[in-house]
Amino acid sequence: MNPGWEAWWRSSVSCAGGKGSPVLEPMDIALKEWASVIRALQLGLQVVVLRKGGIAEIDGRFEVKHRQFLLYPTYEHQDEKLIVPEWRKLVRQTQAERVAGQVTISSWARVEHIAKVRDRLELERLGLEHIFAQAFLDARLSYKPDLPLYVLVLRVFNLAEPVSIEETPEYIGCRSWVELKVDVPIEDSSPVLTDEEFARRLAHFAPLT
After folding, report:
1. How many CB atoms lie within 10 A of CB 74?
2. How far is it, in rounded angstroms, from Cα 65 to Cα 69?
3. Which uninterrupted H or E stretch holds 3?
4. CB 151 within 8 A of CB 114
């Protein structure tokens, strides 16, 4: 994270305690992501999400508008072929758990690092673990090649109690960010990874220079 981002981040985040402590205030901003990827984040299989922008976003561009947010599961575009074979079961599991007309929020995340990459070499240089198949990475990189691929490194927290909300028309569509009509409490949430394990993951992170 560059100095400007870090200063902005530190000034905008209020923590309940020491390092790694979750904020206390309820949240209503959520980032939409495949349910299978959210499950991978919740299991500690990866600490990254990738973004370029959806067709419903301004100019189709993704912007990192928020540094902490709820994780909103989506299902429509999940594709087993775009996940590595050993973790394709996450797609099937999350699809089976889906309740029509409802969305269950069970975790939130805090952005710890951001990288913008433009080709496979730069992405590989980051050295991050994930469940994405190479076909998914190539597709993301080639989509709108004039735009960078955002790699968000997240510290993820599981809520003490999942919250189910109605999936309204306002939440549907190819956009990254949604503002929920309800505040979701995040008090007493727990980090997926310990401070030590998260630090170990970040030790493999190689920021582009």
Report:
1. 19
2. 10
3. helix 3-12
4. yes
CA distance linking residue 151 with residue 188, whole number of Å: 28
Strands (E), the chain: 27-34, 48-51, 68-74, 102-117, 149-166, 177-184, 190-191
The pair of structure tokens assigned to 195 is 């401070």
pLDDT in tens, 181-191: 999 999 999 99
Q: Name the token pair of 175.
A: 């956009």
Tell me whether strands 177-184 and 68-74 are parallel, antiparallel or unpaired: unpaired
Separation CA 113–CA 193 (nearest Å): 16
Place of tokens 């923590």: 15
Percent of the chain as helix, strand, coil, to the nearest 5:
30, 30, 40
Contacts of 143 (CB under 8 A, 6+ apart): 52
Q: How confident is the prediction for the chain on average, in pLDDT?
A: 84
DSSP helix/strand/coil, 29: strand
List of domains in the chain:
26-199 (2.30.130.30)
What pLDDT, in 10s, does the model give residues 92-121? 999 999 999 999 999 999 999 888 899 999
Decide: 93 and 39 in contact? Cβ < 8 Å. Answer: yes
Collapse the DSSP code of 191 into the 3-class scheme (helix H, G, I; strand E, B; otherwise coil) and give the result: strand
| Closest CA relative to residue 151, chosen from 166, 130, 173, 178 | 130
